[in-house]
Give the backbone structure.
Amino acid sequence: MPSFHFPVMLALAACAFFLCRKGGTKISHALVCAGFGFYLADSAVAPSVHTALNSVTGMLGQLG
């Protein structure tokens, strides 16, 4: 398991928190998105999403 999952998870949690507080996002919307993420992780497209996330993270790592 790559080591970037935990920092990505923390960044997404912080974004969700600030969107709920300042952006007008409702808690119910955030919960639906989180639930969708859990179901997506258990689906057949999960490896493709994982590969895409690895690619984007690798590109961002090369920029910095």
User: Anything to note?
Assistant: The radius of gyration is 14 Å. The mean pLDDT is 80.
